[in-house]
UniProtKB/TrEMBL annotation:
The gene is phaG. This is Na+/H+ antiporter subunit G. It comes from Marinomonas pontica. Signal peptide: none annotated. It comes from the Bacteria. Keywords: Membrane, Transmembrane, Transmembrane helix. The lineage of its organism: Bacteria, Pseudomonadati, Pseudomonadota, Gammaproteobacteria, Oceanospirillales. It holds the Pfam family PhaG_MnhG_YufB. The keyword Transmembrane helix applies. Residues 99-125 have a biased composition (Basic and acidic residues). The keyword Metal-binding does not apply.
Length: 125
């Protein structure tokens, strides 16, 4: 394996590992559910992308052609992680999970929770 590929793979693994470490640390340290959603969706998604990118480069070199399995996994994660975080946040909102006291504009939580969907307001007109 050429030295430049080893360097690229190592750098990609290190960057991915750092993002995963930061995401895991944030998941443990952040005080409430709403803040904890940022760690796994942002930092960990970037971390997994770095690790899968390194795997894609390595496998492509070994096989002699482009390995797209890792690319498909990365695309799937980049699409599903924000959607899952949004669903978790909506569930917490409707379960009336309270944020920490330091949260700015807590009155907006009640406004968002009690608003009608656009489909309901169109039917009433």
């Amino acid at each position: 394996m050429p030295f430049y590929l080893e360097i690229i793979i190592c750098v990609s693994l290190l960057i991915g590992g750092v993002f995963l470490l930061v995401g895991s640390y944030g998941l443990v340290r952040l005080p409430d559910l709403y803040m904890r959603l940022h760690s796994p969706t942002k930092a960990s998604t970037l971390g997994i992308t770095g690790v899968l990118l390194a795997s894609m480069i390595f496998q492509s070199h070994l096989k002699g052609f482009l390995s797209i399995q890792e690319l498909l996994i990365t695309l799937f994660l980049l699409i599903t992680a924000p959607v899952a975080a949004n669903m978790i946040a909506k569930t917490a909102l409707h379960q009336r999970t309270q944020p920490v006291e330091k949260t700015k504009n807590p009155e907006l939580i009640d406004i968002v929770r009690d608003r009608e969907s656009p489909k309901q307001s169109q039917h009433e007109e």
